[in-house]
Amino acid sequence: MRLVLFDCDGTLVDSAGVIHATMARTFEAFDLTPPALGDTKAIIGLTLDIAIARLTGELHVNDRARAMTAHYKAIYTDVRAAGMSELPFPGIAAMMEMLARRDDLVIGAVTGKSRRGLDLIRTSHGFDFAVSRTADDCPSKPHPAMVTECCAEAGFDPRDTLVIGDAIYDMQMAKGAGATAIGVSWGYAPASALLAAGADHIVQTPDDILALLETAHV
Fold it and tell me: pTM of the full predicted structure?
């Protein structure tokens, strides 16, 4: 038995568009120049208040970052409803269906999204997670708490756990928890950065994840 923990944004769903659009509107509401798309992609995976603080050049979350975080959350659903919803990357839906049928795996999620955000993804796309941790539950990635708490709840040793994600924060979180780190090439960070952050493997397609899970030593 193994525990497989998926990041959400950039790994299962392509959410850069809706995140960037919401971020741009938030910055404009506070009379700030919106970040470039590349800068937004670079912070995806972090807890929202920390992400906004970084985009505004702050070392720590301050009152403005907290106010911007509240504004972002308030308008996110409207931006999403205006046609900017997240879609699964090619092959993800089929992969998740296949994994759900396996009795040797427990599937979970570790995400910088809020609990509400993760629930939207689950209900929109039918993803079933036996265990999950969000930004509402744990410190921001790369802190290992999301992984270690999922392991404790599901009854797994981190050594029997795989963390699959697209961000350097995912790789750092996995290694900090003592889990195997799997980087995906279709997300928002280059493979070279994922390897530098400690990725044990890089996969090119969801089918590669299925193949990797057939390997006993992973």
Answer: 0.93
